[in-house]
Amino acid sequence: MPDMDPNLRSAVSIGRRVQDPLAELVKIDPKHIGIGTYQHDVAAGALKAALDGVVQECVSFVGVDINICSEILMRHISGLNVSRAKNIAEWREQNGPFINREQLKLVKSMGPKTYQQCAGFIRINPQTAHSAKSSPYPESAVPEKPAAKKGKGKSCVNVPTSFNPLDQTCIHPESYDVAHRFLSLVCWSVDQIGSEGLRERVESKVRTSSVEELAKTLDTTPETLKLIIDGLLQPPGFDIRQNFGQEDFKRGIVSMSDLRVGAVLTGRVDNTALFGAFVDIGVGRSGLIHKSRIRPEKLPASQRRRSLALGPGERVEVRVLDVDAQRGRIGLDLIRVLE
After folding, report:
1. Mean per-residue pLDDT for 172-187?
2. Alpha-carbon distance 251 to 258, whole Å?
3. Among candidate residues 198, 216, 243, the one where a domain is terminated
4. How many domains does the chain divide into?
5. Domain boundary among 221, 243, 265
6. Is the pLDDT assigned to residue 67 strictly greater than 90?
7. 124 and 40 in one domain?
8. Which of 46, 209, 224, 230 is the most exposed place for a label (fewest CB within 10 A)?
9. 198/286 same-domain check
10. Does 177 map to a domain?
11. Which residue has the higher pLDDT, 28 or 179?
């Protein structure tokens, strides 16, 4: 949106953060997000390298829909870089959405090793793949990449042109053969992955024959088979973030004016410092638990020896000690750490 008013562009960015925080925040340099009090004391190169590694791990762990993700998000997929992400975006723009993972092999500079590295983290969801009907090439034909350099075209690469249901799962293409044989073993169809019927069949099969025995039958490792089973049982369009715990804020308490001294609330630790921990309690401003209030007896045994007893993301139960609306400060007392 280069020609849009900056205020409108910012509004769109905020809206997109609600829809998919990872996809939008990945566009921001980590040093601008405000990750802690002392981030500027760390060497810029070391900070960037450490945070880039975490971002890549998160992107790979969640997976991306290659038909709707941004070029910047693609750069963080294992095996891809700036130029490869740009090539994928250009191919998508010229030929329409990807119908299956195999079509990635038609992209310039996408060699076998790169494909092997990135394929398992890329998803082709049916909602976005089916929009490929409007693409410029007929369904029966293999799309050709316009020749850029002589002798480096990929028009001769033979790839299927139909949607593969396994492409929307975390299962790597190298394990598709094992996945098909496993489905045959439980007498089920690949078109019904994620269904309740398949879950019942698989659980019944695992009860009668252990995962280890099934892995031997299918000539694979138990670890690989467990990943395949997880992929087959997940519903279409599954996002691991759906299972993340949500903040349990109290209803009716949405601003500082709703707070009363002595009220017991639940929240999530936002940030930590040497003097205490900041907790989001759902009123638009974080409250502070001073370090003197974070006593060992209130903590689980595993956290009593840590230098910073509370860490970002932990759920806690707190009591309101004081509210200073004029200065925008909320004092909290830790009651307990929630599991």
Report:
1. 94
2. 10
3. 243
4. 3
5. 243
6. yes
7. yes
8. 46
9. no
10. yes
11. 179
- Name the residue range of residue 21's domain: 6-134
Domain with residue 297: its CATH number is 2.40.50.140
d(CA 78, CA 120): 9
Residue 247: pLDDT band with limits 50, 70, 90? low
**Confidence (pLDDT) at 143:** 44
With contact defined as beta carbons under 8 Å apart, do 231 and 171 qualify? yes
One domain for residues 13 and 123: yes
Q: What's the full length of the chain, in residues?
A: 339
Question: Can you read off the two tokens belonging to residue 31?
Answer: 């040093």
Query: Residue 98 CA to chain centroid, in angstroms?
Result: 20
Q: Is the pLDDT of residue 249 over 80?
A: no
Residue 37 has pLDDT above 90, yes or no: no
Query: Does residue 303 form part of some domain?
Result: yes
N-term to C-term CA, the chain: 43
Residue 205 and residue 127 share a domain = no
pLDDT in tens, 262-307: 999 999 998 888 889 999 998 988 999 999 999 888 888 777 766 6
Same domain, 21 and 127: yes
Residues 264 and 184 in one domain: no
Distance in angstroms (rounded) separating the CA atoms of residues 278 and 312: 9
Residue 34 and residue 113 in one domain: yes
Within 8 A by CB and 6+ apart from 250, the residues are: 263, 265, 266, 282
Task: State the CB neighbour count (10 A cutoff) for residue 329.
Answer: 14
pLDDT at 25: 81
Given phi > 0 = left and psi -120 to 50 = alpha, else beta, which region is 262? left
Residues 325 and 267 grouped into a single domain: yes
CA-to-CA dists, residue 74 to 93, 159, 203, 266, angstroms? 15, 22, 36, 36
**Orientation angle between helical segments 222-233 and 196-208, nearest 10 degrees:** 150
Would the pLDDT of 142 be above 60?
Answer: no
State residue 143 phi and psi, 5-degree precision.
-65, 140
